[in-house]
């Protein structure tokens, strides 16, 4: 599940903020680690510098991971970053991509807003761990100590669960299962669009079903040494997920890229996309099967 981890770098300290997560996972799972740098066409003259940098980082990681089963290699490619990262990942049995939200462009121009990394996040079919870069860096004592898993009650929405079971087993994480139920629905009227709240008895019945569902999901963590709890909230799903993650000081949010909607590609405004853009918490995204 974490056999081969790909970590794209661009020579910046911001991009390197993904490396502690790579190290933690590689040490725990004995993963193969590939450090990848892509030299864009306009940077061809910097090819030697790219190789020197990524080779140096690989040597540093080898020292840090000495004594573990992890293996570290480095790769330098030429082309457009998003395409080369996706192509390499999809043709080299990569199990997980770990990437920072920011790189050389700095915190004022995040990778995830209209850049090549946005294409990577929205199109790649391989699980993706996105680390929110900060200045100065801020790492929790336990990178995977508390994991929030939002679910919507669908099988597609459970795509991240096998990965969280594996993480919980290795790190004895606290796992919080969260389902956000809608408190009403929008309807078109002569005035435009109105919000109609659901009746109390309907909300109570929906809450009960959600609690029963989460209770059932929690049984999948039996034997993992994880502390598993569940919570049901009502409101806007993305807002409640972000709010809850902050309240519980979660170290990771894990979500499927699709749930009830059944979309084949991410839509702007989807729940996962909103959480990715607005939350400061690292996000593990697993594409749901078709």
What does this molecule look like?
This protein is an alpha/beta fold and 290 residues long. Helices cover 33% and strands 26% of the residues. Strands 3-2-1-4-5-12-11-6-7-10 form a ten-stranded mixed β-sheet, sandwiched between helices. Strands 8-9 form a two-stranded antiparallel sheet. The longest helix has 19 residues, at 200-218. Mean pLDDT is 85; it is low at 106-114 and 259-269.
What is this structure, in a nutshell?
This protein has 290 residues and is α/β, with parallel strands linked by helices.
Offer a few descriptive terms.
about 35% helix; ten-stranded mixed beta sheet; alpha/beta; about 290 residues; Rossmann fold
Please render the helix and strand layout as text.
Elements: E1 4-9, H1 19-29, E2 32-39, H2 47-64, E3 71-78, H3 81-91, E4 96-100, H4 116-123, E5 128-131, E6 146-151, H5 161-171, E7 174-181, E8 184-189, E9 192-197, H6 200-218, E10 227-234, H7 237-247, E11 252-256, H8 271-278, E12 283-286
Parallel strand pairs: 1-2, 1-4, 2-3, 4-5, 6-7, 6-11, 7-10, 11-12
Antiparallel strand pairs: 5-12, 8-9
Helix pairs in contact: 3-4, 7-8
């Amino acid at each position: 599940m974490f056999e081969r981890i790909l970590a794209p770098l661009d020579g910046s300290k911001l991009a390197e903020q993904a490396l502690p997560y790579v190290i933690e996972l590689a040490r725990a799972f004995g993963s193969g680690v590939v450090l990848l740098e892509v030299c864009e066409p306009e940077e061809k003259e910097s090819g030697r510098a790219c190789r020197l940098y990524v080779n140096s980082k690989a040597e540093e990681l080898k020292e840090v991971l000495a004594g573990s089963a992890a293996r570290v290699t480095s790769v330098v490619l030429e082309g457009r970053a998003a395409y080369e990262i996706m192509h390499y990942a999809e043709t080299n049995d990569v199990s997980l991509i770990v990437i920072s939200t920011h790189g050389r462009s700095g915190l004022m121009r995040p990778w995830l807003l209209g850049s090549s990394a946005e294409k990577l996040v929205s199109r790649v079919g391989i699980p993706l761990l996105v680390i929110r870069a900060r200045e100065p860096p801020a790492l929790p004592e336990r990178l995977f100590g508390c994991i929030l898993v939002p679910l919507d009650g669908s099988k597609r929405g459970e795509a991240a669960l096998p990965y969280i079971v594996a993480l919980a087993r290795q790190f004895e994480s606290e796992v919080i299962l969260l389902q956000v139920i809608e408190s009403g629905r929008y309807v078109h009227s002569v005035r435009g669009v109105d919000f109609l709240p659901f009746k109390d008895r309907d909300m109570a019945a929906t809450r009960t079903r959600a609690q029963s569902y989460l209770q059932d999901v929690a049984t999948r963590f039996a034997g993992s040494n994880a502390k598993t709890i569940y919570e049901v909230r009502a409101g806007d799903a993305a807002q409640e997920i972000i709010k809850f993650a902050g309240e519980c000081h979660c170290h990771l949010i894990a979500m499927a890229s699709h749930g009830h909607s059944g979309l084949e590609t991410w839509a702007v405004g989807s729940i996962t996309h909103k959480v990715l853009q607005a939350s400061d918490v690292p996000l593990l995204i697993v594409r749901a099967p078709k």
